[in-house]
Amino acid sequence: MSENKIPYKTYLDENEIPKAWYNLRADMKTKPAPLLNPGTGKPLTAEELTPIFCEELVRQELDNDTAYFPIPQDIVDFYRMYRPSPLVRAYCLEKVLDTPAKIYYKFEGNNTSGSHKLNSAIAQAYYAKQQGLKGVTTETGAGQWGTALSMACAYLGLDCKVFMVKVSYEQKPFRREVMRTYGASVTPSPSTETAVGRKILAEHPGTTGSLGCAISEAVEVATQTPGYRYVLGSVLNQVLLHQSIIGLEAKAAFDKIGVKPDIIIGCAGGGSNLGGLISPFMGEKLRGEADYRFIAVEPASCPSFTRGRFAYDFCDTGMICPLAKMYTLGSGFIPSPNHAGGLRFHGMSTILSQLYHDGLMEARAVEQTSVFEAAELFARSEGILPAPESSHAIRVAIDEAMRCKETGGEKNILFGLTGTGYFDLLAYQKYNDGEMSDYIPTDADLERGFAGLPKVEE
Amino acid sequence: MSENKIPYKTYLDENEIPKAWYNLRADMKTKPAPLLNPGTGKPLTAEELTPIFCEELVRQELDNDTAYFPIPQDIVDFYRMYRPSPLVRAYCLEKVLDTPAKIYYKFEGNNTSGSHKLNSAIAQAYYAKQQGLKGVTTETGAGQWGTALSMACAYLGLDCKVFMVKVSYEQKPFRREVMRTYGASVTPSPSTETAVGRKILAEHPGTTGSLGCAISEAVEVATQTPGYRYVLGSVLNQVLLHQSIIGLEAKAAFDKIGVKPDIIIGCAGGGSNLGGLISPFMGEKLRGEADYRFIAVEPASCPSFTRGRFAYDFCDTGMICPLAKMYTLGSGFIPSPNHAGGLRFHGMSTILSQLYHDGLMEARAVEQTSVFEAAELFARSEGILPAPESSHAIRVAIDEAMRCKETGGEKNILFGLTGTGYFDLLAYQKYNDGEMSDYIPTDADLERGFAGLPKVEE
Questions:
Q1: Contacts of A234 (CB under 8 A, 6+ apart)
Q2: For A62-112, how does the pLDDT look when each residue is reduced to its tens digit (9 = 90+)?
Q3: Which of A86, A219, B268, B372 shows a CA-CA span of 20 to 30 A to B289?
Q4: pTM, full prediction
C-alpha cells in the first residue's frame, strides 16, 4: 500500500473534538411535532417535564431554534477519554467485495459501554450533577444504555439505579456485572420496589418483564425520590442533540481527507445513532448546501418506518409517557424476540420521523439472518465483531457497495458502526449453528398494533 | 484543561507504524540459553524444529544476533486495521489517586481479540501462508490467543484448529463462539481426535483438561497432518520479537510528546506482553544509552520469578516440548485456579528469565483480590474494564504512584494495558459479590514442583 493514500483510520486531534452539539431542528423547515400531555392533549411545558427530567435537559428537549449548544468543558474532558472515534476506511471489506465503492464507517464501539450510548449518558449525568441531584434512574433492555450510564455516573460520583428487563437480567448476567462493577444498582424489572412493579407482579406473577414496564418503574422511582431524575438513552430530541458529536466528527474527518460521502447509512431503533450520525450532513441538505442520500435501516420484524403509521402515540407500552408524533407500530405492538434488542422499539424519534415524512430520508427493512451474514463477513474482513444492531447498517452498506459493482459507480458510502457484539454471542451462536430464523409480522399483526393508537386531535 | 497539554491519547500516524521488529537478544551480553532437545540434551537445530514450526519462524526463534527484522508489508497492512494503539495519559486515574506521578499506559485491547496477542498471531499466520501451508494448530486456555489466531487466519484464508482446554470450552462458551465466527474449528481438549487425547481420556475419564494436554494434541495434529504447523502465543523468542511492536510504538509516542518514562511495568505470564513492551527501552539500558526501572508483575499464586528456580525445564506439563532455561515452578506445578488464566504458567520466557537473572529487571507478586480492587478503581476512573491479567500491572502502577505521593516524586510511570475484561465477568462477579479469595502456595507446594525438574547437564 502506498503511504500517501487515505489512511485506514482517520482520527481527529483531541483539540478538534467539536466544542458544540448541533441541533438539527434549527434547520428543519417543518419542525418535529411537540410532545403532548396525554391527559390534556396539549403540548407539554417545561414545568410539566422538570419533575421527571433535569432542567437543562428539558431546555434542550424543547428548543427547536438554537442551532448550537456549547459542550461543557467537563464533558469534553470525558469525551477525550474515548473520543475522537475513528473514521475507518474499510479497505479490507472493499477487497473482499471487489467493489469500486469506497466504504467508510464511523466506529463508536471502542469504549467499555461498547456503543455510542456513552455520548449522551455523560451529558445527561453531567446536567444531573450540575443541578445538585443525588442520582438518576433509567431502564435498560439489552444493556448498552445501562452500561453507558453506569460509567458516566461512576465518573461523576452520581448514584445510578437501573431497572433491567428481567429476561435480560437473567440471560445477560455479564452486562449486569459490568454495571455493578461501575457501582450501579441493577434491579430486575418488574420488581417489588415500586407500586407499578408490585401491581404488574400481582397481575402477571410469572412475567419476565418488558421495556415499557421497566420505564414505568424507573420513572416512578425518579419522581418519588428526592434528588433523583429519570434519564433516557434514545428517541428524545436531547439525545439526538448529544449524539450529533458522531456526525460532526465524521464530517470533520471527511473534510480532513478531502472526501464527501454520497450515501449515509445507519441502523434505527429509537434513532439515537442515526440521528446523530446524519445531523450535520442533513443540515447541509436542509440548507441547500449539499446533497446526500440517507438510509435508515430497521429490522423487518419491527418495521416502524417502512410499515408503520405517522401518528401520535405513547413512547412506552405502559402508556405513562408523553405522546409523540412518530412513525409507530402502536405502543401495544410486540416485536418478535430478534437479536437486536436495541432496535426492538415500536416508535421512532420525532425528528427522524418528520424528516422521513418529508421525503428527506429513505428507509429499508432487513431480515436478521441476512444481517448476521453481513456481520460475519465484516468481522472476518475488518477484524471487528459488530453488534447485531450495527450489523443492520453493514447489511445495507454491503448491498449498496454491490450495486456499485453492477453499475460501476464509485460511490463513497458511510455507515455508522455503533458498537461491538461482545455481549451478543448467544445470537452469533444461533447463527453459527444454523438455528436463526426470520420473522416478518403479517398485516394482521400490524393492524392489531395500529388499533391501539390513541385518538389525538391535531 | 488547557489545549496545549499532553493529550489523553497519543496516536502515531499510520505511516509511523514501525517497519521492523526489534530483537532484544542482539543487545544482550548474556544471551538466553538455547532450547535443548530433551532426548539428547543438545541445543535444538533448525532441522529439528521445522517439522513443528514454520521455517521463517524457526529462523527468528534461533537468531540471537540480528537486531531488526523487517515487517512484511502485508503484516503492516493488517496492523493498520487496529494499530497504532494509543499511549494513554491516565489523567483521571491520577486525579483519583491525587498523586504527583504521571501515569501512562499502552492500551492493546482495542481489537476484537481483546488483547496484544493479535500482534504475533498475524505474523505467525502470515509466515505459514507464505510457506504454502494449509493451516495451523494451537491450544488456548482463557481464549485470547485462540481468538487472535482465528482472526489472523480468517483474514489470510488459512485453516485454524484450536484445542481449547475443556473446562474453558464449557465455562467460556462466548470465547469459543467468537473463534467459530471467525471460521476456526474449536475442539475441547482432551479429545478423541488425537492419540494423546484418547490416551489421557482412557486414563482420566472425567478430566476437564489442561494447557499441557491441549499443547500435546495441537502438536500431534500439526506434525501428523500434511500442510499444517503448530503456533504458540507466548514464551518463545519469536513471539517477543513480534510483540516488540508494542514497545517500539510506545517509545515513538513518548518521543513525540517529549517524555521519558522512569518506571515500566508489565504483567508476566509467559512474557509476551512484558517482553514486547520493554524491549526497546531495555535495549537502551543494555547499550548504556538510558536507564529505566522495569517491574514484572505476576500472580502470588503462580510466582515464577519471585519464588521459582532458574533452571532448564519443560515448557509444557506433558513434557513433550523442548527444554528451556527459565524461571520455573516446575512443569508439574499446578497453579490455583485464579482468574488471570493468561498468567497461570509455571515458566517464563528465556529472554526475560536471563534479564531478571542478570539483575536488569525487578519482579513483584500480587494477590488477586488486590488486583481486582485496582481493576475496579481503574475501570471507574479511566472508563476501560481491564482484563484480570492486565490488572496485575495496574495494581503495581497504582502502588508506585502512591509511593510517589509519599515521597513527592514526580515519576513517569508506564504500564502495559494488555487487554479488556469483557470475557472475564464471572471473575468480576465473584469480586463484586465478595466471594474472591487469595491463594499463596506454601513452600512445600513449591518443593513438590521443583522435585519434578529434569536433570540437565549444562
A1: A145, A269, A270, A271, A272, A345, A349
A2: 999 999 999 999 999 999 999 999 999 999 999 999 999 999 999 999 999
A3: B268
A4: 0.96
